[in-house]
């Protein structure tokens, strides 16, 4: 049975439990669980990380922990009763764990590893705390470490700052908000601005001395030197090095490193240096022989210096190498360091280039205890401490020192009868009074133990040596008296014995007879001469002698003789026990000389402070002893002395001695009667204040009043204890009188002089310190009344004298901080005075920082929810006095501009924050009663209105993100809780007072605005929090957004008809609120939109305003990341439900649908924009949104914004052509006008003309970069027209040059023809703009099908690629997945005019093949019926799919949606016909390219010939005969008669083409391929015989064009002559391939005539090697573009040569065959290329010579696919088609017969029979004569891979789309070549129809079927005669008449086709 648990409430999982049992709860190790019930070893409960899931788990898996339970029962809350630091550590580490893993994912390795170390460290510390074996101090230390690391980690991870008190987290509900603010501010300040340490320490570690000439032991002496004052400021650090320059005692670290302690901030400056002196121990001369002398001398070696400022740049731990300078002149050794510092080091040599002193230096900051903690390793290993010279900046009481510093300065000695100067060595001993030498009291420096004697270094041959060596003598005090120092002087011989001879001595006593020590300073000592063997051990013999020249006696002749030699030392005593001051000694011994008391007291002020504090207790005892002795006589003097000592302790150097005085007062002071005298003298001074002229001494007295009162109170207490409380009334009266005097003096106003006010200020600054003393004797209320009276006596008028006002405020501040104010009774008495002064200062806006501090302290004492009566009364008083002024102050300081300086700004933020905290504290303390009283206190509605506006404005300021630092979430949540509570109180007042007739828009608007920004705050968006943080916030405050949302809804409903005031203004703010992902909030707020629509409908009959505002705001809000799919559905469903019963339902549904569709697109756009790189999805999404704004919403500004977003995306992706088209959309919206335009996006303020010009130039630049130069030319012309109209010839010239450069680029630069791919996006998981739609995409350069497919799969990583091309079914459409269907499609150009024209280079044609394409085609072969295994062609059908786009490609996107698709089926016969047509066309093209030398090698032609002939021999074409020429098929398909005939003609034509191709091949084939050629020729004869050409020839009618004599005639003046392979110009009259209908040649051999013709054509000028070694063409089509063949067929030459020209043919071929691209499949029976879908073509018998009829539903390519059987001639390129339109048979076109003959070189006709069915432009083409001087285009033929109008013998244009074109340069043709039935009417009709071809450079509109036209900026105006090439503006050319008879309407003539110079 399950029993609710009583004590087992909380536990930690110690082993993971999978929860496999029924109702089992899955648990991970480390989870915390709350237990609800237990039963037989099982618990039931939940994991705290997911409290919604409850289950059971074994009790053995859980370790129970102590916890307390709040709210027992269903909603009980369990809180563990462990140390709060442990709790925080646990939860923090859990949060960090998740984030730590994310750091690894985000590749933030550095922080990842650092955090890992910190987490491990915290876990270790946590274990230490949990074990509980730590001492109190150690526990405190561990907690400090833990919290420091927690704070560091939180800061690094961007988590919240945790407020703490004594290392424990603080609950903001338990303390006042001002205290919370201070805690936060303290931690923030600690984090941001580390406190500058006042104490610094220098760590020095000696590593080695690197020097080449070592070999002797060394002494290295470090010290700090002040170059400004030329004196050392520290003791010395002394260490010894061995002969190798390494420390002598490596096992003792304290000998190698030292810490120079107690450096003040003032000493970290540039002129403080580290000096290093190096002394060698060895021979006198460095170069002496080793055995010369055994005695070791200390000799100077070198010096190094380093400025301490060099260490301030960073705490470097790297070793420094200090340069060591050697001393050349020993007499200057004493100042070598000074000279180096002064840069006078030229006189010194460096020890060597690589030599130096290796040391490690580091500056440490903080007090010494802190350093010990933080650098414990340094201290644990051992380090010597080097002190500063003398006392540190702050003298600590209890510090015991007695150090005498002696500096051995210099000496003056006689030669001593020698010719050279002496080598003097000084030896020093300390001798005590008994004559014994003191052992171990001479310290050379830290790092070296003290020695008993000292030997100076020796200067060579110097009678005036200067040493300047500093020594420390730490002699105990008891040894000091009677001790003296003896100096012995010896001459050191350099002879072999090396003996040292004593020649003199000096001595100096340490203490004088009167008890004073040796005074500080330099002393000139007498050198007493003596013999070498003199015994100085008997001190009595010399102590009677004089020691210093300063105290010589005139009658001491013996001493006088010795005065020639002198020795100087400097002494400096640093002692806390001994004094050198005689006055101090006189004062302390006052009883021995009573007559000197007055003088001693007077001299006390002149004694140095450090002497006084050393003997503080003795001095005080002396003073009070004198007072007891004779108070009448010495009372005033003692008082003054006491004041002097008290004020001395105010000095920062001595303020640490205040506790010493406090201890003295408490424990040692015994003056029980002193209080009377002290009160009397103090009152006397106070009474004299107002009259005294000089106030300095009185101010000193007032400064000391705190300690004077301490003495008075302690004295009174001692008296009471002694007498049992006698004279109490008298004492009280004295105090009252004293304070009366004070009040009188305070109430005086300063008349003119400021001295009085200064005295008042001094009194006020020290008065609050007296309160605690008074409390020791008086009741709290009494003291409070005394203080209130005293402070109340201050003048209330605010003076000009601001200094006094500030001091008054400081006094108030100290009062509030005092112990007196903490008591509620006294607080109630003092509060009015405090508030009065605060009010006064806040009104004047003065001393705000102090006011803020006082207010904070006031509120710190009032705890939250304190219901005590006294507290409620205090709040009453504060609200009445300060609320209004507090609001005004916050408004005032937040509206000021922030100061610029960082310190000032910090101060500014502090004061703002403190006032805000005070306001929040006050509001949180206010109850219902307080709010009611406040609202009732306003007399008029105006006052209430002003107050509400003011408080709403302040709340808006508090909500600002910058109000608190970003990691102060705790503070923000508290503030928000207070704000929402206050708003709920005030909204009631708003409803009651400002509705109906009293409606006030401003206040309601302020209210709504506040509510909206409250909900939108970042710190309230709980969705962004971690689960644990979200749980804590919800438990403490709930979701405040929902509360405020409900309040908004409630207030909105109350508005009634006044709602109209807020429509549409509040739509945007409310929309922003509803976008917050909080379901409850959305459900509350979305219905408000229905209400708005309803009221707007009532007002204006529609809700256009609501719609417009919704759409505008949605875009900006959603682009900021707000909103989601759930919101879209919720918005739609809630509003649709709301408007069901409305009369305006239809228009409402329309609005909701529009907004919903916009949301879909915006959400898709936002999701796409999150991707990193630019891809098709981003661009497609932007296009979808852009079109939506244009077509559905008509929002021009948004439309333009998205145009520019799309433009930027294209530029980023380097889609320059698309970028240009995109910018054109904006360009179209502008006119060439002078209308001024405002600044917009990146455009400055400018005229419309200027902006359009700027756009034009940008578009031209992008067309240029995208190699779309034809479009750029049109824009160049447009802008050139504008320049010309303004006579801006400079810019016009530039534009013309730019236009010319674009023409050059067309002809000279290579352009790659892109592939096109059809992509289907199926399934519901795709974005809305792609879902279940199909698109055609323009691929990138060189991008093949596989690469494109991979790119699409990368863009949609979750998509599945479909492996077939069939249309998917409905299940795929509705699937919750993504399916991609991709295959290549073929572009079908609309305009054929340029493509079919002769002589147009491929560089030009290539543009029209792949630009402005609306239609694409895809073929799928399949078998219908039974498949014949022997001959599959019988049942091979083709399904041809045509796709029509919504816009042409290229355009504003690389892909456009398919608008319409048409599917037709082609029969096997039609399929076979098209396959042959395409193969024939491919052969012609290759032969033509070979003849015009456009092929780099002959391999493509070889392979194509081989493929066709080999297939034919092995049954290729013969399969067609078996399938379609058999009797059964002809009888069963009588309707296919014409098609069968057409197939026959194509087969015969193929044979003729092959024959000529072999002839050409023979000419150019390399020698090594001759055997292959011979094989081809042999196979060709077999093929001819297998085709049975002779049998079929009788059936075939005459070709419409043939040449009777079969050989061409050369006409040298013919303008359009082609280049033959040998370079000669030939004009074909009759082509070898223009075969007559009846074959003349036998099938057994090639006609000799044909061979002869071929040899005539090719000539002998160039070898075949030269022909095939020509450079490849740079144009796109030269790279194997299959467009040069049929649009649907890949030749047997490798098609990939275009995309990858470097691949081997073998690989190219195999790769291309694996692709499904219909444009590139090899032509074979398996992949035939189908016919156009929109037609089933039936071909007429040759001979019915009717012209084709124009069908407006057919595009030009559809009409140009099937050439007539024998109408193709290699010389003229004339071709025609038999078409069937509506059952009517159409004969192929016949070239017109000219009626008159003119000069063949001058008169030619250009005729194009193919109409452009969809072009709206009409006009006629003027015939023209090309002039040899008009246009020169070098390299035309050699640069064009596909011969466009070639002029070689018999080879004409064979480009892909010119198969239906009649030659534009037809020469005179024999009458026999004109077919029967054709005549001049056909020619005229052709000329009329030609005008339907659109201009080749226009981006023309598709007006017949396109709802969204292309930009018309690229279309040139409709003219009567659109030119074939872009005409130059304002230029007309007179034309020549053809044959002098035919003339069309006059107009500008088209430009001639570009030609090579060699063609002219």
How would you describe this structure to a colleague?
- β9 (164-165) and β10 (168-169) form a beta hairpin.
- The model is unreliable at 553-559 and 1590-1960 (pLDDT under 50).
- The longest helix is centred in the last third of the chain and has 28 residues, at 1537-1564.
- The relative contact order is 0.04.
- The chain is built from 64 helices and 44 strands.
- Strands 12, 13, 14, 16, 17, 19 and 20 form a 7-stranded antiparallel sheet that branches. Strands 1, 2, 3, 4, 5 and 6 form a 6-stranded antiparallel sheet that branches. A 6-stranded antiparallel barrel has the order 34-35-40-39-38-37.
- Helix content is 43%, strand content 13%.
- α23 packs parallel to α26 (824-844).
- It is extended.
- With 1960 residues, the chain is α+β, with helices and mostly antiparallel strands.
Explain briefly what this protein structure is.
The chain is of the alpha+beta class and about 1950 residues long. It has 64 helices and 44 strands. Helix content is about 45%, strand content about 15%.
Q: How would you summarize the topology of this molecule?
A:
Layout: E1 3-4, E2 10-13, E3 32-39, E4 42-47, E5 54-58, E6 62-64, E7 67-70, E8 77-80, H1 84-105, H2 109-131, H3 136-156, E9 164-165, E10 168-169, H4 177-192, E11 199-210, E12 217-226, E13 231-232, E14 237-241, E15 257-264, E16 272-282, E17 297-307, E18 319-322, E19 325-326, H5 336-341, E20 349-350, E21 356-365, H6 368-374, H7 376-381, E22 384-386, E23 402-412, E24 424-431, E25 453-455, E26 466-473, H8 477-480, E27 484-492, E28 500-509, E29 521-526, E30 528-529, H9 540-543, H10 557-561, E31 566-575, H11 582-588, H12 597-603, H13 609-614, H14 616-629, H15 631-648, H16 658-668, H17 674-688, H18 696-703, H19 705-723, H20 728-747, H21 755-766, H22 771-775, H23 780-792, H24 802-817, H25 819-822, H26 824-844, H27 848-860, H28 869-895, H29 902-925, H30 928-936, H31 941-959, H32 969-993, H33 1001-1015, H34 1027-1037, H35 1040-1055, H36 1067-1074, H37 1079-1085, H38 1087-1100, H39 1104-1119, H40 1125-1138, H41 1145-1169, H42 1176-1193, H43 1196-1213, H44 1216-1228, E32 1236-1237, E33 1246-1247, H45 1248-1265, H46 1269-1285, H47 1289-1308, ...
Parallel strand pairs: 15-22, 36-37
Antiparallel strand pairs: 1-3, 2-3, 2-6, 3-4, 4-5, 7-8, 9-10, 11-15, 11-21, 12-13, 12-14, 12-16, 16-17, 17-19, 18-21, 19-20, 23-26, 23-31, 24-25, 24-27, 27-28, 28-30, 29-31, 32-33, 34-35, 34-37, 35-40, 37-38, 38-39, 39-40, 41-42, 43-44
Helix pairs in contact: 1-2, 1-3, 2-3, 4-29, 11-12, 14-15, 17-19, 17-20, 18-21, 20-23, 21-24, 23-26, 24-26, 24-27, 26-28, 27-29, 28-29, 28-31, 29-32, 31-32, 31-33, 32-35, 33-35, 33-36, 35-37, 36-37, 36-39, 39-41, 40-41, 41-42, 42-43, 43-44, 44-45, 45-46, 46-47, 52-53, 52-56, 53-56, 53-57, 56-57, ...
């Amino acid at each position: 049975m399950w029993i609710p648990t009583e004590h087992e409430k909380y536990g930690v999982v110690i082993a993971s439990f999978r929860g496999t049992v029924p109702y089992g709860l899955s648990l991970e190790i480390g989870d915390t669980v709350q237990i609800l019930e237990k039963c037989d070893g099982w618990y039931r409960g939940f994991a705290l990380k997911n409290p919604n899931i409850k289950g059971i788990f074994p009790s053995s898996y859980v370790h129970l922990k102590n916890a307390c339970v709040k709210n027992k029962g269903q909603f009980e809350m369990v809180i563990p009763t462990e140390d709060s630091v442990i709790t925080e550590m646990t939860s923090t580490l859990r949060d960090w764990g998740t984030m730590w893993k994310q750091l690894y994912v985000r590749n933030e390795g550095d922080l990842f590893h650092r955090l890992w170390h910190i987490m491990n460290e915290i876990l270790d510390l946590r274990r230490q705390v949990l074990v509980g074996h730590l001492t109190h101090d150690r526990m405190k230390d561990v907690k400090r470490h833990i919290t420091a690391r927690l704070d560091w980690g939180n800061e690094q991870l961007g988590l919240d700052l945790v407020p703490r008190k004594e290392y424990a987290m603080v609950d903001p509900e338990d303390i006042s908000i001002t205290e919370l603010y201070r805690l936060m501010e303290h931690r923030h300040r600690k984090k941001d601005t580390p406190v500058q340490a006042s104490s610094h320490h220098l760590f020095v570690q000696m590593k080695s001395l690197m020097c080449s000439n070592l070999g002797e032991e060394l002494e290295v002496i470090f010290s700090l030197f002040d170059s400004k004052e030329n004196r050392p400021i520290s003791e010395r650090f002394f260490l010894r090095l061995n002969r190798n320059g390494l420390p002598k005692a490596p096992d003792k670290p304290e000998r190698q490193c030292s810490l120079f302690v107690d450096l003040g901030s003032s000493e970290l400056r540039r002129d403080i240096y580290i000096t290093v002196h190096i002394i060698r121990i060895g021979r006198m001369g460095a170069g002496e022989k080793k055995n010369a002398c055994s005695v070791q001398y200390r000799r100077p070696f070198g010096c190094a210096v380093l400025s301490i400022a060099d260490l301030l740049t960073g705490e470097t731990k790297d070793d420094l190498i200090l340069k060591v300078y050697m001393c050349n002149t020993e007499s200057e050794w004493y100042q070598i360091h000074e000279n180096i510092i002064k840069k006078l080091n030229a006189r010194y040599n460096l020890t060597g280039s690589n030599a130096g002193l290796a040391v490690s230096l580091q500056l440490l900051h903080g007090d010494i205890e802190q350093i010990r903690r933080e650098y414990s390793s340094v201290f644990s290993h051992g380090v010597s401490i080097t002190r500063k010279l003398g006392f540190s900046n702050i003298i600590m009481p209890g510090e015991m020192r007695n150090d005498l510093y002696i500096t051995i300065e210099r000496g003056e000695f006689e030669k001593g009868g020698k010719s050279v100067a002496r080598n003097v060595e000084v030896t020093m001993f300390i001798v005590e009074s008994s004559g014994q030498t003191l052992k171990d009291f001479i310290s050379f420096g830290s790092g070296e133990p003290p020695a008993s004697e000292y030997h100076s270094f020796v200067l060579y041959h110097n009678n005036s040596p200067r040493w300047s060596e500093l020594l420390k003598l730490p002699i105990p005090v008891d040894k000091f008296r009677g001790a003296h120092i003896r100096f012995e002087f010896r001459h050191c011989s350099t002879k072999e014995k090396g003996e040292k001879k004593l020649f003199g001595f000096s001595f100096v006593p340490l203490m004088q007879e009167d008890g004073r020590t040796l005074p500080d300073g330099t002393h000139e000592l007498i050198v007493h001469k003596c013999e070498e063997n003199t015994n100085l051990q008997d001190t009595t013999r010399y102590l009677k002698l004089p020691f210093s020249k300063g105290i010589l006696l005139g009658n001491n002749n013996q001493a006088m003789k010795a005065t020639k030699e002198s020795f100087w030392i400097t002494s400096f005593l640093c002692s806390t026990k001994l004094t050198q001051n005689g006055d101090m000694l006189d004062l302390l011994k006052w009883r021995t000389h009573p007559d000197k008391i007055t003088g001693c007291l007077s001299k006390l002020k002149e004694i140095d402070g450090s002497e006084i504090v050393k003997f503080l207790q003795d001095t005080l005892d002396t003073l009070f002893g004198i007072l007891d002795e004779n108070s009448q006589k010495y009372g005033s003097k003692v008082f003054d002395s006491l004041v002097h000592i008290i004020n001395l302790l105010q000095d920062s150097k001595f303020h640490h001695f205040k506790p010493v005085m406090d201890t003295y007062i408490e424990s040692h002071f015994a003056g029980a009667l002193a209080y009377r005298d002290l009160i009397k003298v103090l009152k006397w001074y106070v009474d004299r204040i107002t009259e005294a002229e000089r106030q300095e001494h009185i101010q000193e007295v007032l400064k000391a009043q705190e300690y004077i009162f301490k003495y008075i109170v302690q004295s009174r207490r001692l008296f009471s204890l002694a007498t049992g409380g006698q004279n109490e009334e008298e004492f009280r009266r004295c105090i009252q009188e004293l304070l009366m005097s004070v009040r009188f003096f305070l109430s005086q106003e300063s008349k003119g002089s400021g001295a009085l006010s200064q005295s008042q200020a001094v009194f006020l600054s020290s008065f609050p310190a007296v309160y605690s003393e008074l409390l020791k004797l008086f009741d709290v209320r009494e003291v409070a009344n005394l203080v209130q009276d005293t402070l109340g006596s201050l003048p209330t008028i605010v003076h000009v004298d601001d200094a006094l006002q500030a001091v008054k405020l400081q006094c108030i501040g100290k009062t509030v901080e005092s112990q007196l104010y903490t008591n509620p009774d006294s607080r109630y008495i003092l509060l009015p005075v405090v508030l009065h002064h605060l009010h006064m200062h806040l009104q004047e806006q003065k001393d705000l920082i102090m006011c803020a501090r006082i207010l904070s302290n006031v509120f710190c004492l009032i705890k939250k929810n304190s219901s005590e009566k006294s507290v409620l009364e205090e709040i009453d008083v504060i609200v009445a006095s300060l609320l209004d002024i507090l609001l005004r102050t916050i408004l005032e300081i937040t509206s000021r501009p922030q100061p610029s300086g960082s310190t000032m700004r910090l101060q500014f933020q502090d004061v703002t924050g403190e006032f805000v905290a005070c306001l929040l504290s006050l509001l949180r303390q206010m109850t219902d009663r307080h709010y009611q009283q406040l609202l009732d206190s306003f007399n008029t509605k105006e006052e209430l209105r002003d107050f509400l506006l003011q408080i709403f404005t302040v709340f808006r300021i508090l909500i600002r993100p910058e109000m608190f630092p970003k990691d102060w979430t705790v503070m923000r949540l508290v503030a928000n809780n207070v704000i929402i509570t206050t708003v709920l109180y005030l909204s009631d007042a708003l409803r009651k007072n400002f509705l109906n007739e009293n409606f006030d828009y401003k206040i309601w608007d302020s209210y709504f605005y506040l509510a909206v920004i409250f909900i939108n705050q970042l710190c309230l968006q709980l969705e962004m929090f971690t689960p644990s943080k979200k749980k804590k916030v919800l438990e403490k405050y709930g979701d405040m957004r929902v509360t405020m949302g409900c309040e908004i809804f409630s207030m909105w409903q109350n508005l009634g008809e006044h709602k109209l005031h807020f429509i549409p203004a509040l739509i945007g703010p409310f929309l922003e609120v509803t976008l917050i992902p909080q379901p409850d909030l959305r459900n509350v707020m979305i219905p408000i939109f229905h209400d708005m629509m309803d009221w707007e409908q009532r007002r204006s009959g529609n809700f256009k305003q609501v719609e417009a505002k919704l759409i505008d705001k949605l875009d900006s809000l959603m682009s900021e990341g707000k909103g989601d799919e759930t919101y879209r559905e919720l918005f739609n469903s809630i509003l649709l439900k709301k408007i069901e019963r409305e009369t305006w339902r239809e228009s409402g549904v329309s609005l909701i649908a529009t907004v919903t569709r916009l949301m879909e697109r915006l959400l898709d756009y936002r999701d796409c924009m999150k991707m990193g790189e630019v891809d098709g999805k981003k661009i497609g999404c932007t296009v979808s949104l852009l079109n939506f704004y244009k077509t559905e919403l008509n929002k021009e500004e948004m439309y333009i914004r998205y145009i520019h977003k799309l433009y930027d995306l294209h530029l980023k992706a380097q889609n320059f052509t698309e970028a240009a088209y995109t910018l054109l959309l904006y360009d179209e919206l502008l006119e060439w006008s002078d209308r001024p335009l405002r600044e917009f996006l990146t455009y400055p303020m400018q005229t419309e003309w200027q902006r359009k010009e700027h756009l034009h130039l940008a578009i031209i630049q992008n067309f240029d970069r995208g190699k779309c130069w034809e479009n750029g030319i049109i824009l160049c012309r447009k802008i050139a027209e504008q320049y010309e109209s303004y006579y801006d010839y400079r810019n016009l010239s530039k534009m013309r040059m730019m236009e010319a450069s674009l023409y050059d680029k067309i002809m000279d630069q290579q352009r790659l023809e892109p592939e096109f791919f059809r992509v289907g996006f199926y399934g519901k998981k795709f974005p809305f703009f792609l879902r279940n739609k199909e698109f055609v995409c323009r691929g990138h350069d060189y991008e093949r099908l596989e690469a494109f497919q991979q790119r699409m799969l990368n863009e949609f990583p979750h998509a599945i690629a479909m492996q077939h091309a069939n249309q998917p079914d409905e299940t795929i459409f509705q699937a919750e997945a993504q399916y991609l269907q991709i295959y290549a499609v073929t572009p079908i150009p609309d305009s054929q005019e340029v493509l079919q024209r002769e002589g147009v280079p491929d560089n030009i044609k290539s543009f029209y093949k792949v630009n402005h394409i609306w239609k694409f085609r895809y073929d799928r072969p399949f078998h219908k019926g039974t498949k014949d295994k022997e001959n599959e062609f019988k049942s091979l059908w083709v399904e041809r799919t045509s796709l029509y786009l919504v816009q042409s490609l290229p355009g504003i996107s690389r892909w456009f949606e398919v608008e319409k698709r048409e599917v037709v089926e082609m029969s096997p016969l039609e399929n076979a016909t098209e396959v042959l047509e395409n193969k024939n066309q491919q052969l012609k093209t290759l032969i033509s390219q070979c003849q015009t030398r456009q092929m780099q090698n002959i391999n493509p032609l070889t392979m194509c010939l081989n493929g066709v002939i080999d297939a034919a021999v092995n049954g290729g074409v013969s399969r067609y005969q078996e399938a379609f020429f058999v009797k059964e098929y002809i009888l069963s398909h009588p309707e296919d008669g014409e098609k069968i005939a057409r197939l026959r003609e194509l087969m015969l034509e193929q044979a003729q083409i092959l024959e000529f191709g072999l002839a050409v091949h023979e000419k150019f084939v390399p020698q090594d391929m001759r055997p292959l050629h011979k094989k081809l020729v042999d196979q060709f004869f077999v093929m001819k015989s297998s085709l049975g050409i002779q049998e079929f020839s009788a059936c075939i009618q005459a070709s419409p064009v043939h040449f009777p004599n079969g050989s061409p005639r050369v006409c040298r003046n013919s303008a359009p002559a082609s280049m033959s392979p040998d370079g000669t110009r030939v004009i074909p009259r009759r082509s070898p391939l223009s075969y007559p209908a009846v074959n003349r040649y036998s099938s057994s051999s090639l006609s000799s005539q044909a061979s002869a013709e071929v040899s005539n054509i090719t000539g002998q000028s160039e070898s075949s090697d030269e022909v095939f070694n020509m450079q490849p063409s740079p144009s796109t089509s030269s790279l194997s573009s299959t467009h040069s063949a049929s649009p649907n067929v890949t030749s047997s030459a490798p098609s990939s040569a275009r995309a990858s020209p470097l691949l081997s043919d073998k690989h190219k071929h195999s790769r291309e065959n694996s692709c499904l691209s219909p444009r590139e499949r090899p032509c074979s029976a398996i992949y035939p290329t189908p016919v156009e879908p929109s037609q089933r073509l039936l071909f007429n018998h040759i001979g019915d010579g009717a012209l084709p009829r124009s069908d407006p539903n057919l595009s030009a390519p559809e009409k140009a696919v099937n050439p007539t059987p024998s109408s193709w001639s290699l010389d003229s390129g004339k071709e025609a088609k038999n078409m069937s339109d509506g059952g009517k048979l159409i004969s192929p076109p016949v070239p017109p017969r000219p009626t008159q003959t003119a000069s063949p070189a001058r008169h030619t006709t250009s005729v194009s029979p193919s109409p452009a069915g969809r072009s709206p432009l009409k006009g006629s083409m003027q015939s023209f004569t090309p002039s040899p001087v008009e246009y020169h285009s070098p390299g035309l033929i050699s640069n064009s891979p596909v011969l466009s109008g070639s002029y070689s013998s018999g080879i004409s244009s064979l480009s892909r789309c010119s198969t239906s074109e009649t030659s534009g340069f037809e020469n005179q043709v024999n009458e026999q070549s004109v077919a029967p039935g054709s005549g001049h009417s056909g020619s005229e009709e052709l000329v009329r129809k030609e005008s339907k071809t659109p201009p080749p450079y226009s981006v023309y509109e598709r007006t017949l079927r396109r709802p969204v036209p292309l930009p018309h900026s690229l279309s040139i105006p409709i003219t009567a005669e659109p030119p074939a090439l872009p005409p130059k503006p304002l230029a007309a050319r007179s034309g020549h008449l053809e044959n002098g008879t035919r003339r069309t309407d006059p107009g500008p003539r088209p430009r001639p086709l570009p030609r090579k110079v060699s063609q002219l």
